[in-house]
Design a protein that fits this description.
With 385 residues, this protein is an alpha/beta fold. The chain contains 13 helices and 14 strands. Helix 1 packs antiparallel against helix 6.
Length: 385
């Protein structure tokens, strides 16, 4: 099929087709996808279908530029998080809950995302999607009313794709780059519960096992190097595509802090004037949390609030972040130095899953024991490029 364009509009010719005359794993039901839309759909569908199989819960992902901004499974939302995600009082199905969590991990990055759901899209999920800025969706099926809602989104330009849940990918895959064809075995190694069996230190709770498995699956489809933080059935921070692993750990940790600070009473107490759009409210909450507002931004934020602006102090942030606990950290490659653990300990990490195999494994283990962090060696590298 002809695509709208390649990775950029000036790459005018782009096409997608099944291999060797076979049916494609994803069909376009509505809209005109670009190359990036298709790449997001293919990666995101694999993530949610694998998470569904591993955890037996509806799964969702919010993709941007071929990496997840967020991923989650259907775990009930506590009242404060429902307020953060602006779904208080709303009836949410399991599928809708999974996507609300996935998008809520990093809502600034999820602006204009590509959505993936492991289960058929119902009206509750479509109704939530109707109110957010998103480019398209891939799922195994759609309720008729949900399909009608989605095809009317973005003035009819919203992309709707259907995945074939029974599709089996070829054993090998290839790509052509700069006149060369590169071929490799497909990474068809599923992440499974037994990958957490080699416990190096500490103990894993059932919730930690769920979160670590979700994190490993999410990183399997994230641009490497990558580190992710997970809590309560959702990713809360993903550091993707960094050359240094500790930079991944720092980036993901900073995102986890912002996610957690979104539950601070001062942030929840920001009362926006009527007519302020949802995405603008989200962006302002993030900037308020970050705190480095320019004079112009401070004036603009005051203008959209019903009440006087009360700053969130650095001391208040530190105290609130100090309450974050029970977080699971996953890494797609071995942790080479203990500095990753030192940084992770500042963001409530209590559980770690990583391949192991570094020359400094003993130092990393010692750091985990020092901070009371449980760690497993998966012996499974999950690089994705």
């Amino acid at each position: 099929m002809q695509l709208r364009y390649g990775c950029n509009p000036h790459q005018a010719y782009a096409a997608a087709e099944g291999l060797n005359g076979h049916d494609a794993p994803i069909q376009v039901l509505h809209g005109a996808p670009s190359m990036i839309n298709f790449l997001d759909a293919l990666n995101a569908w694999q993530l949610v279908s694998e998470a569904r199989a591993a955890l037996d819960l509806p799964a969702a992902a919010s993709f941007k530029h071929v990496s997840p901004a967020g991923a989650a499974v259907a775990v009930e939302l506590p009242p404060d998080l429902a307020r953060v995600y602006e779904v208080s009082g709303r009836e949410l199905t399991p599928a809708a809950t999974a996507y609300v969590r996935a998008r809520g991990a990093d809502p600034k990055s999820s602006f204009g995302d590509f959505v993936a759901l492991s289960d058929p899209v119902d009206t509750a999920t479509a109704d939530f999607l109707k109110g957010v800025v998103s480019d398209g969706i891939v799922a195994p099926d759609y309720e008729p009313a949900a399909f009608e809602t989605l095809t009317g989104k973005k003035g009819g330009a919203f992309i709707v794709m259907q995945a074939d849940a029974s599709f089996t990918a070829p054993a090998r895959e290839s790509r052509e780059i700069f006149g060369m064809k590169l071929i490799q075995d497909r990474n068809n190694r599923a992440v499974v519960a037994s990958d957490l069996d080699h416990l190096v230190c500490g103990n894993l709770t059932p919730a930690a096992r769920r979160d670590l498995l979700l994190g490993l699956i999410a990183l399997k489809y994230t641009q490497s190097n990558s580190v992710g933080y997970a809590l309560d059935g959702q990713m809360i921070g993903i550091g993707a595509g960094q050359q240094s692993r500790v930079d991944c750990t720092k980036l993901a940790g900073a995102k986890a802090d912002i996610w957690h600070l979104g539950r601070h009473p001062k942030v929840l107490g920001l009362a926006f004037k009527s007519g302020v759009r949802r995405q603008d409210r989200i962006n302002w909450r993030v900037r308020y949390i970050e705190g480095d507002l320019t004079a112009g931004e401070t004036d603009a934020l005051r203008d959209v609030l019903e009440q006087p602006l009360e700053p969130l102090t650095e001391d208040e942030k530190r105290q609130w972040i100090g309450q974050l606990d029970g977080v699971s950290l996953v890494s797609d490659g071995f942790i080479p130095f203990r500095d990753n653990i030192d940084h992770a300990s500042r963001h409530g990490v209590r559980f770690v899953a990583q391949p192991g195999g570094s020359n400094r494994d003993a130092e990393v283990e010692a750091a985990c024991r020092e901070y009371g962090i449980a760690m497993v060696h998966t012996h499974l590298r999950l690089f994705h490029h």
